[in-house]
């Protein structure tokens, strides 16, 4: 049990029951005295004299502790509604009168139905880890960002095993701001029957461990009510600013994917994004590449412009082309260029349109949301033009598990309209600064509504390897700008379709003694072989010219 009493600048906390202790806190100083009357000690374990204020309140403490003890004993035997309505309300009202301290809770998950991870929580966490955790006794260790600036002086360890220490559960630290003292308290949030209790004391519903599950964490900021304006108008913005700067300095970009598990705390799981692809290593027509880079740069710096024209700050890219032409590589290059995270949406693991919306809401700003091979993910193609029969078939394949007609509870029920809403519905505007990318091998199979300008603003064709792209790959893989075999390659590339992925593979030395000449000769040989294989195919086509092609029903 816990009760907080106040006298001037002193806060007095009394815990009774399991692990009993009595604590007093001055402006910056904490003293503690075990409830059974042993000598009080400082943080370093040295005995000190407990100030007179403790004696002053001793009688009051024991009476209140006794009352609370009786209360906690009786509580399980009284109807909950009665407790809440009469006794609970009574205690809360009187506690409020005694306590001039205000509490602000900064929760890990905020927003309606706790859909969204709180940015303020992360910023406060970074701020507290940097500023206050040296004074804390109970800490949580998290792996430090690799290559971060390490301005956080609370990281520990060496080499690749560095850790950032953040406040542990139930740890309390003090902070000073313009002469005011504030207290930060880290608490675990518990959920019961749809309600949330942040570090709720046992008599207020937090005690029945069996019925409570963990639902994120929170920080409680406690301050005197005379500092209310200072805290709300200056201190909290200061914490957010500092926290944001620390997070930016220590940021590790992430690659997220949706788990498909609906009852997890977060719908996304992530790994550190460490893809080496950049525009500098991407082989494509230089003018086209520059155009894409300019487009991305313009987007990144257009926050105000988007606001002025009344558009959500997001941009859609459709990357289409045959397999191996660099669509996925381009997505990684885009994220690296913009310094954004990647959210890789696996549509087949999304159960419904509502889940898709939740996924979107949980994404953060500065991110690339990508749906790969959208034509294969779901049957979203030309739905509007489908005959009833085709629709029934699609429904059978897509929504109903098997031919036996039994509904598969795990089958995705995402529809085209759900996906359209995902891209540019009302929800898509929350957060801002997002790039949405669809990749496909068959652009013609997509519903025009899905890829119209406004949804997919920029359509980029990733094509077979041209001579420019080959020269780029040769420079990248073999470090050559010119070679006698380049002319042969140039001629052959005009006649044969080969993907950059195949060219890259042929240019890569397979043995230590394979040199530039051998690699280029191998490429020429492969191109000639492809050309020879193409000719009979062409001849075959010519033989059958004029014949009507009859498709199987
Ligand atoms: N334009 C390119 N520039 C440099 N490397 C490329 C390019 N295109 C492909 N590659 C190489 O080929 C490999 C496969 O490319 P990628 O996965 O990006 O193709 P894709 O278009 O996404 O294929 P799919 O349609 O099958 O998903 C990559 O690992 C990359 O190394
Ligand atoms: Mg791909």
TrEMBL record:
The keyword Oxidoreductase does not apply. GO terms for biological process: response to stress. Residues 530-544 have a biased composition (Basic and acidic residues). Keywords: ATP-binding, Magnesium, Nucleotide-binding. Gene3D superfamilies: 6.10.280.40, P-loop containing nucleotide triphosphate hydrolases. It comes from the Eukaryota. GO terms for molecular function: ATP binding; ATP hydrolysis activity. PROSITE patterns: AAA. Residues 138-161, 530-553 are annotated as: Disordered. InterPro entries: AAA+_ATPase, AAA_N_dom, At3g28540-like_C, ATPase_AAA_core, ATPase_AAA_CS, Mitochondrial_chaperone_BCS1, P-loop_NTPase. The keyword Membrane does not apply. PANTHER family: BCS1 AAA-TYPE ATPASE. This is AAA+ ATPase domain-containing protein.
